[in-house]
Amino acid sequence: MKSYKAYNLCIASELQLPELIETEGEPDVIVRFGKVDNATAMRHDGGQNFLGETPEVAECFIRNGREIIINPVAGVDEALLRTVLLGPILCVLLRQRGLLVLHASCININHKGVAFMGGSGWGKSTLVTAFHTKGYDVLTDDVLPIQIKTGQPVVFPSYPQFKLWPEAATSLGQNIKTLLPVSQNSLKVAYKLSRGFQQTPLPLHHIYVLDKGSEHKITKIKPQEAFVELVRHTRTISSITEKEFIAEHLHLCSELIKNVRFSRFTRKPSLGDLPELVKLIEDDLAQSYQNDSTNALDFVSKSLLATK
């Protein structure tokens, strides 16, 4: 059993996970092989005890955010098993640990997390890879775990690998002949980072909701609209059905909206426009930072005047 670092956790696993960074220490989570029997199923409550199945891959039992029992289908491709474990299975575990888990990718800009949220095939990984190619560090790809306690929400890093469409990888200067498929029969390729991976948590500053249209533009989102998008793009929302978890999830969404900026990022589906899209985000963030500074100065000035 080896230990790995992902999502701010030490994960001890009987299944080897070469996508992750190896580490040492007391495990927060244990992943082991085992039968998911009737006694295990009896403990299923849709919340702290979760029983699930990915057809033709594996059964799993996830207990209290601390233990994962996986029972693979005979002959299953191990890379596919790892993809399911590192995706939907760990998303349930992270939710059990009290995190809000979104369908989004995140980069580090000015020591703050900037996330791109959207469904599968909406270009999250491609956009984040474009930022990485320009020199920005990456926190997550496709899974965005957020800790929301008091004040600023915090993003936990995932692991240093992207899943890209071959044409997207080629447009970003990657030689796809050197990249392996994510799993057997997968159309996407795995791009493992040799540099530029942000390994420590960062405060989350901005979430861009991805959309497709006839032009590139960024528009503000009202809180009600942001709430709908968060619910729409939450991972595992249809898996954990216990009432307390659902109530807490809605509360976490509301708290996130209070503390993070939201915008809709509409763009044309063109890989050739990726440099323009990166510049558009950079300019929008620069403007928001400037507005934050102006507002802070105004607040200080008004406070000083009030004390005279």
| Mean pLDDT score | 86
The CATH topology name of the largest domain reads Rossmann fold
Proportion of residues in helical segments: 25-40%
- CATH-level-4 superfamily name of the largest domain: P-loop containing nucleotide triphosphate hydrolases
Mind describing the biggest β-sheet?
A: 9 strands, mixed
Poorly predicted parts: 299-304
Q: What is the CA-atom radius of gyration, in angstroms?
A: 20 Å
Strand segment count:
18
What would you say the CATH architecture of the largest domain is?
3-Layer(aba) Sandwich
Class of the largest domain, according to the CATH hierarchy?
A: Alpha Beta
Continuous helix count: 7
Count of folded domains: 2
Structure in words:
By secondary structure, this protein is α+β, with helices and mostly antiparallel strands. The protein folds into two domains: 2-97, no CATH class; 101-296, 3-Layer(aba) Sandwich (Rossmann fold). It has seven helices and 18 strands. The strands form three sheets. Strands 8, 9, 10, 11, 12, 13, 16, 17 and 18 form a nine-stranded mixed beta sheet that branches. Strand 1 and strand 2 form a beta hairpin. Helix 5 (223-232) crosses helix 6 (243-259). The relative contact order is 0.13. Mean pLDDT is 86; it is low at 299-304.
Key traits:
9-stranded mixed β-sheet, alpha+beta, Rossmann fold
In brief, what are we looking at here?
The protein has helices spanning 38-42, 78-96, 124-133, 166-171, 223-232, 243-259, 274-307, and strands spanning 2-6, 9-13, 21-22, 29-33, 49-54, 58-63, 67-72, 100-102, 104-109, 112-117, 137-140, 144-147, 154-155, 161-164, 189-192, 202-212, 217-220, 261-267.
